[in-house]
Design goal:
By secondary structure, the chain is α+β, with helices and mostly antiparallel strands. It has one domain. 35% of the residues lie in helices and 30% in strands. The protein has a 5-stranded antiparallel beta sheet with strand order 1-2-3-4-5. A hairpin with a 4-residue loop joins strand 3 and strand 4. The longest helix has 16 residues.
Length: 93
């Protein structure tokens, strides 16, 4: 898990499932290495998890941000669009 962004309004975390096992030198069962992004809208207390083609699309956006450093307003505007997908309340374990 890697925190990519944290502001007063949003948190974005890159989740790498199975990544640790794939990096190990010990022989293990083959695992599908998957990744996704969790976007938390702090204002509404809801989150959305992007995987599959949604994660690939968001990954392309992250790479674009790395190439051309956006303003915070540009990042927040993009995240606002994804926040509209958020239906799951954030739960603390």
């Amino acid at each position: 898990m890697q925190m990519l962004y944290d502001s007063d309004s949003f948190v974005v975390v890159h989740m790498l499932h199975g990544h640790e096992a794939a990096q190990s030198d010990a022989p293990q069962e083959p695992q599908l290495v998957r990744h996704g992004f969790e976007i938390v809208d702090k204002r509404s207390g809801k989150e959305v998890y992007l995987d599959g083609s949604w994660a690939e699309m968001f990954q392309a956006q992250v790479l674009e941000w790395q190439r051309n450093t956006p303003t915070q307003e540009e990042v927040e505007d993009t995240l606002e669009g994804y926040a509209g997908l958020a239906q799951n309340p954030v739960l603390v374990h």
